[in-house]
Design a protein that fits this description.
heterodimer, A: 2 domains, B: 344 residues, Rossmann fold, 2 domains, seven-stranded mixed beta sheet, three-stranded antiparallel beta sheet, 9 helices, lyase (chain A), Carbon-phosphorus lyase complex subunit PhnI (chain A), PhnI (chain A), lyase activity (chain A)
Chain lengths: 375, 344
């Protein structure tokens, strides 16, 4: 009976043993290596690093494996690990203009310094299932002779690739990038957020926010809920160096490179009494190659700036407290899924009330019936 | 946290009670502030815990911050020590802190709870840690944090009174049965967490320190020992608690909160103590309800690894013990009592 089925340590142990078994799948098949996940499920690993806010390919691959491919679960594993790590300090701002670019497209110029570089993209592929990927033998992907006939992947280093927004900025056509005033940024993983928040806090929250959620909100801005006439000034993906200045050493050192996707949108702004008409920016920055997320982030980021730009409020994507309070998928999934925890104490209280109110309702009806009959 | 390379992947070890000392310090400061301002929600930098948000991360962080090596920890969910999440949280502290755990309310120095206050009165050397999902009592009346913080600052609680009044006007009752709002030390209106309102009177003048942790919402609040806690009500509609028509079917306790257990698909059900430790203790002392099991056979069904035993009712046993049918219907239905449960 139910009291006995309440759980207990044994039931939990058994459930976890079963989970481990299911995760491993058929033992006649080889276990997936972390290098295979990191190399062949790159975009899953990228998403886990981005929303897990931790740049570590190997750990992200491990999380994907441990989570059986459930990416939000993998993100959660990474977050729970990340939170235990000590903080040494802040890196210098990444110089995305100095990126070793692997992909770069602009929707605002046909050609521009550095050129357009398609790089590894699903864009323009025909979404037809490629059954050759499922074949292991001769002619299949697993076979050594099966190699796509392409040029080896190169990154363009020779020609500098200035950011489109910098090009526009030289003419004063677009608002300037905010100045770095040297103050330490707010860290939303180390301090509670209190609304309203500054732009850097907003960007932090969005950068680790759920891709699907931001996609939907970004989409809503294109359909008239806080329309801001965006152009993709530029999307670039590649490797940037992380520079750290250790105060004890007195000089800068490179910690290595990280792969990031940056999206800058160019949006309309009619100008105000004090500011001449100029374009405004929406900004998206994500670890790894996550273009959908970077673009959505830029759209939502721009929509959230309605107040400083004197725009009409009212759309969901403009509502800072709403957008930021619900963008974290680890928080969201935890709270939604906690509904499956027992609630029978509270339910008992509700049962009691509903029964009592039903009894009173019945009583009132009977009295009304008697009264009617008497009249 | 330390890492030590073993094979390809580093071995990961954690601090006592998982959190690093700096984080505990930050949480303790928030707790001290919360104690200094009873009922006020103190923002704190809640960490991501290795368990999901909404599953007790706030309570776990508070417990981790106040837990010492000599503490004896009890964890309950729905009043029971053997509910899965209580087992998981107790296991977490056994693993990360190696502290002694118990199911006995009287032996525990720290009790972490979800949705209940133990029936056994708490003492001054105990801390009760509540897991809180939504710390803001005004949240469902005003979703914006920016607004509700202002309402608290101004002690502007008209919204809440209007809500309770509208309940009465519409239903003849205050339709809040759990997470029933309280006023703490005559100042802040506070959410007591989703405990049934039955438990609200236990918060008043309690000798134990009561701490409330909301991890996802990043808030800690507290009721210091012997603080006045009043459930909101009206002169003509005083606060009342649920009262059950029948005693516990296992230990015959009255004046306690009962779980309704469905026995079959023909309306058969029984009411048993929600507080498993209270029920077990009474059964051990010889109290028997109408479906109570003799002591010998009860002890054979004790959950492994738990001490003293959890009241696992032998499958089918009590049901068939009473003609295979449990009397049900109106006599089993809890009814609202008079004023006896009134907190004020």
């Amino acid at each position: 009976m139910y009291v006995a089925a309440k759980g207990g340590e044994k039931a939990i142990r058994n459930a976890h043993a079963l989970l481990a078994k299911r995760r491993r799948g058929n033992r006649n098949l080889p276990s997936i290596g972390l290098d295979q996940i990191a190399q062949q499920l790159t975009l899953a690993v990228d998403r886990v690093m981005a929303e897990g806010s931790l740049y570590d390919v190997e750990l992200a691959a491990l999380a994907v494996k441990q989570a059986r491919g459930d990416l939000i679960e993998a993100i959660f594993l990474i977050r729970a690990f990340r939170t235990t790590l000590p903080r040494f300090g802040y890196a210098k701002p990444l110089d995305t203009a100095g990126m070793q670019v692997r992909r770069r497209v602009s929707a605002t110029y046909k050609d521009l310094p550095g050129g357009q570089l398609l790089g590894p993209t699903f864009d323009y592929t025909h979404r037809l299932l490629d059954t050759s990927l499922g074949q292991g033998g001769v002619g299949g992907e697993g076979h050594e002779g099966h190699a796509p006939a392409t040029q080896p992947e190169t990154s363009v280093e020779a020609e500098p690739m200035p950011r489109v927004t910098d090009l526009l900025g030289r003419e004063g056509l677009i608002e300037g990038a905010p100045e770095d005033d040297g103050t330490e940024p707010f860290d939303l993983t180390r301090a509670p957020v209190s609304f309203p928040v500054d732009r850097s806090t907003r960007l932090q929250a969005l950068a680790r926010g759920d891709e699907g959620y931001l996609l939907a909100l970004g989409y809503s801005t294109q359909r008239g809920y806080a329309r801001s006439h965006p152009f993709v000034g530029e999307i670039r993906f590649g490797d940037v160096e992380v520079i750290f200045e250790a105060p004890e050493l007195g000089f800068e050192l490179s910690l290595g490179t990280v792969q990031i996707t940056e999206c800058q949108t160019v949006n309309q702004f009619k100008g105000s009494a004090t500011t001449p008409p100029q374009f405004t920016r929406g900004y998206g920055l994500v670890f790894g190659q996550c273009e959908r997320k970077a673009m959505s982030m830029a759209l939502v980021e721009r929509a959230l700036r309605w107040q400083e730009l004197g725009e009409e409020p009212g759309a969901p994507a403009q509502d800072e407290e709403f957008v930021l309070s619900h963008c974290d998928n680890v928080q969201a999934t935890g709270f939604v899924e906690h509904l499956k925890l027992p609630h029978y104490v509270d339910f008992q209280a509700e049962l009691d009330l509903v029964r009592r109110m039903r009894a009173e309702h019945e009583e009132e009806r009977r009295e009304a019936g008697l009264k009617e009959a008497a009249e | 946290m330390n890492t030590q390379a073993i094979g390809g992947m580093p071995e990961i070890t954690y601090n006592f009670a998982y959190l690093d000392e700096q984080t505990k310090r930050m949480i303790r400061r928030a707790i001290l502030k919360a104690i200094a301002i009873p009922g006020y929600q103190v923002p704190f930098a809640a960490r991501e815990m290795p368990m999901p948000y909404g599953w007790g991360t706030g309570g776990v962080q508070v417990t981790a911050a106040v837990l010492g090596r000599d503490d004896v920890l009890k964890v309950i969910d729905q009043g029971a020590d053997d509910t899965t999440n209580a087992v998981a949280i107790r296991g977490f502290f056994e693993k990360t802190a190696g502290v002694a755990t118990t199911t006995s309310t009287t032996e525990a120095t720290i009790i972490q709870t979800r949705h209940r206050v133990p029936e056994t009165a708490l003492g001054e050397n105990q801390i009760l840690v509540y897991q809180v999902p939504i710390p803001e009592p005004l949240r469902f009346l005003e979703p914006r944090e920016t607004e509700t913080r202002q309402l608290h600052a101004l002690a502007e609680y008209g919204l809440m009174h209007v809500k309770l009044y509208e309940d009465i006007a519409r239903h003849g009752h205050i339709a809040t049965t759990y997470a029933y709002p309280v006023e703490v030390a005559g100042r802040y209106v506070m959410d007591p967490s989703p405990i049934p309102k039955f438990d609200n009177p236990k918060l008043d003048d309690c000798p134990a320190l009561q701490l409330f942790g909301a991890g996802r919402e990043k808030r800690i609040y507290a009721i210091p020992p012997h603080t006045k806690v009043r459930s909101l009500d009206f002169e003509d509609h005083p606060f009342r608690v649920q009262k059950f028509a029948k005693p516990c079917a296992l230990c015959a306790a009255t004046g306690v909160y009962l779980d309704e257990v469905i026995l079959d698909d023909r309306g058969g059900r029984m009411f048993v103590c929600s507080d498993t430790d209270y029920c077990n203790t009474r059964q051990e002392a010889g109290h028997r309800g109408e479906m109570g099991v003799p002591a010998e056979s009860a002890s054979s069904d004790v959950m492994p690894g738990l001490n003293p035993g959890i009241h696992a009712v032998p499958p089918g046993h009590p049901v068939q013990g009473v003609d295979g049918r449990v009397k049900s219907g109106h006599d089993g239905v809890p009814v609202e009592s008079g004023r006896e449960g009134d907190a004020s």
